[in-house]
């Protein structure tokens, strides 16, 4: 017993055997508050649409094509709509101009023709 260290203590291990533990080698617990280092990471981007598309059996190539061609399709449809609107405006201006010209130059026959066209539209 004289060979034991001064701070030795007998401890029973989980397997049932006994051993000596030197109290000086154990970590000392501090009485103050414990400092916790927490690492906060940015959330990953939301890929819900891609996951739904891939989960429904659509391949990754189709998802990539949708991501690439989707905005292009919107741009093309917008350009087509703008062109059609411009053509409709141009047609309305031309019809108004022709109608006004026929009324002013045609005399009574032009006014009668314009009146007949107006009546035809009402039916």
Rounded mean pLDDT score:
77
Q: Based on helices, strands and strand pairing, what is the structural class?
A: mainly alpha
Counted beta strands? 2
What overall geometry do the principal axes of the alpha carbons give? Answer: rod-shaped
Stretches with pLDDT under 50, minimum 5 residues = none
Task: Note the main sheet.
Answer: 2 strands, antiparallel
> What is the N-to-C succession of helices and strands?
EEHH
Name the quaternary structure.
Answer: single chain
Number of helices: 2
Q: What's the N-to-C terminus distance?
A: 123 Å
Q: What is the alpha-carbon Rg in Å?
A: 44 Å
Q: What percentage of the residues does DSSP assign to strands (E)?
A: 5-15%
Strand order of the largest sheet: 1-2
Helix content: 55-70%
